[in-house]
């Protein structure tokens, strides 16, 4: 897939909403057969489609009409009940399953060919010898370059049955002829734990970007790694995490809560309540825990934060979370498409719902970020609007509020430097990643012999690189950009992206976090300075 980085811009809008639509896997007693008995409402829709198919004056694609109808129905329910067309089901399923079958490279179209940004660590391409900067020109005899070639064609060629082989011809700068490399396809993880490393001698850090099927295993591995490295405190970073499977969030919370502590409960339209309790398996039930959230932390992220806050376990740091307390269930529509339908609400242990209102329609719902920005809430916790009617108390008497997200225990304002719209836009659109790759094309050998830790601790982005990036942008965008006000921040983005492309596996976060004010706040809390 084309190169994309973490740390998406704050103005995620619908992009965030799309991520947070993944609900829980729940058990239901009703048979689906009962749901599809004959009735006049369904007959009316079926008859209308038939009339259009057979009698309408022009030829119409009724499949598209059905899609529009389904979307229209769901839009009138709530913002998180959504339709997944057949064409999108595979990618959605892979994303939430946590892996796919392929050869394990990240790449982007460069000039008229496909350039490897890097081979995924431990994947089949890395094992076969593919390196960053390589061009994959031919796969099983089929040409993968030229003006008419699309990156989607590469995906089709490189994906295939598990354990099957693909024969590649690869161009590598400095080699006199094309390299013949055979890669055996395998399951390629879509990482949901971006980074796990020690912030201080006692404080471990774990960054989770979503809650997929594989997330708990990744998290458990990361936690055990940090405990072996001496962590007695954990910072769990859920910023910009749009959520995912409710059950995975429960498993992660279980690592921090003692046996029989309530994690959450759900309630459906019939008033049926299902409660989830912690078990005895937790690996970190005593040490300090800090959970980092922001306005894009949603759904399962809020379950984790709310469960810990309501049990007086840990400290929630950051800004008020998104406010999604609805649970979806995926239902097959019989033609390869599916619907994710809201089937219940979830409540934190004190009984609060953190779902924010959506009665004014989806647009107002998704535009609430701008309301928070304009109200000053992202800079001043006193501007957060709360209702006394939604006030709750934790067992130790701490006041918490429902009605629209998790309000942190320790507020950290938005960083107008590192989180400004221009830089996050450039990152999201890939400009920074593309520039760094093209820079490495010319200078990759100069980084040979520099260890990951040496790069993180000592490497400095030159003034010349900043100005080169500015010129790069001016040739590719209509606006003439200057970075006078954000010079140091640009250096940080460039260094973090260089680290990612050179070293992968959490290097971006290790660089970026060195100038992250929320990380600095957590370190101060850990050291007793707050």
TrEMBL record:
> Locate the PDZ domain: which residues?
89-144
Q: List, alphabetically, the InterPro entries matched.
A: ClpP/crotonase-like_dom_sf (IPR029045), PDZ (IPR001478), PDZ_sf (IPR036034), Peptidase_S41A (IPR004447), Tail-specific_protease (IPR005151)
- Answer yes or no on keyword Hydrolase: yes
Instruction: Enumerate the Pfam families for this protein.
Output: PDZ_2, Peptidase_S41
Return the PROSITE patterns for the record.
PDZ (PS50106)
- Keywords for this entry? Hydrolase, Protease, Serine protease
User: Record's family?
Assistant: Belongs to the peptidase S41A family.
Q: Know the name of this protein?
A: S41 family peptidase
Organism placement in taxonomy: Bacteria, Pseudomonadati, Bacteroidota, Flavobacteriia, Flavobacteriales
